[in-house]
Amino acid sequence: MFFDMGPLEVLAIAVIAVVVLGPEKLPRAVQEVAAVLRRLRALSQTAQTEIRKELGPEFSHLNLQDLTPRGLTRKAVSGTEKTLGLSDLAKTVDLNGLLAEDTSRPTFTKTMK
Description:
Blueprint: H1 7-55, H2 69-78, H3 86-92, H4 95-101
């Protein structure tokens, strides 16, 4: 339902809020919580838009929800991990090649005495 909470938990939170805040302050508190949630949702949408823009059109099919730990676990368990699009990302970034070309890093070798 709402953050994996059932209707009974939501009802319990509502009753506790009425008791703690009272009926006079409760409408204002609900408005403030709703405003914070709207700002968080807008921030999340902006971040997702920026990520998609930076990744470019070749990763437009990539679902950002699949990159969460829960999404990755669900894909791994269901056996559909190939639909994540991560193999495309791995093909475009060759870390071994980048590390081999990097000559600015000091190399450590074992010397024999």
